[in-house]
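INTERNAL AUDIT FORM
Audit reference: QA-55
Scope: verify that the stored structure record matches its stored sequence.
Auditor: D.O.
Record contents follow.
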Amino acid sequence: FFAGGYSDAGSYSEAYFYSDGQFYPQAEMLTPRSHHMCARYDGEIILAGGWHPGTDYMDTVEIFNPELNKWRTGPVLPSSVGSGALVLAGGQLLLVGGMVGWTEKNNRIFALEDRVWVVR
């Protein structure tokens, strides 16, 4: 699954599944972004944070349902972050690392618990 990106023209909201050597277009993200984190979780694709020109890093989350080919808004992160990683550990979705500004690193872990992001 590929989503978003950035070029001199700005951020992108395109999304694609890659299978059998081909890209298959999906519904566009709600908000264009790059430097975001993405993971498959509970049958859906979670896309968190990232960067959009003119807004700096973002705290928003979008959830893609591949069966419906639709995005919806997810729970907001505790703070804006980009360039980190979403990982599944022990059945729990965690956001680790990344940047909270152009020079400041994110030294916290965010965990998705009962559809709410909490700081660990």
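Auditor finding: record pair retrieved intact. The mean pLDDT is 90.
Action required: none
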